[in-house]
Amino acid sequence: MWKADLGIGFSLLCVSVFLLIQAMELPRSHVGISPGLFPSIAFLGLIILNLALVFRSWRKKAEKKEVPASLGLNLRSLGKIALFAAFAWLYITLLRPLGFVYASSIFFWMIFILAGVEQWGKALLFSFLSSVLVYLIFYRIFMVVLPRPNWPIPHPF
């Protein structure tokens, strides 16, 4: 398993460095936030996480206490993957009629339930609040236009 971690970590590290360089070459803005700021921050975070994965795999190699593990692909996990794909399709389908906040709330809630969260009410509340937070960050701060509801339902903002 340490070989897979090392290979994946190093490969994604190379891709992240390349994409960080590309994001830093985006044109600078004289007013407001530059278009390359958010991607640069995201790719820098990926570089840090991939470095952690590479170092962790080297440490595992040194310990050599690895037990062979299966890929974990059984019927239950394949069913969860299929459900996730169905939820993603439903999210894309509902994005136009419901708008970003409502469609994302439903999608996040379904993913929480799929992940095994037992408190459905708290999951729904957290899903709605996180959708609103993402909306506020991207719409108000980054000025990214996100879909609004086409159906006659109240929009929170």
UniProtKB/TrEMBL annotation:
The chain crosses the membrane at residues 33-55, 75-92, 98-117, 124-146. Pfam families: TctB (PF07331). InterPro entries: DUF1468. Keywords: Membrane, Transmembrane, Transmembrane helix. Residues 8-147 form the DUF1468 domain. The keyword Membrane applies. The keyword Transmembrane applies. This is Tripartite tricarboxylate transporter TctB family protein. It comes from Thermatribacter velox. The lineage of its organism: Bacteria, Pseudomonadati, Atribacterota, Atribacteria, Atribacterales.
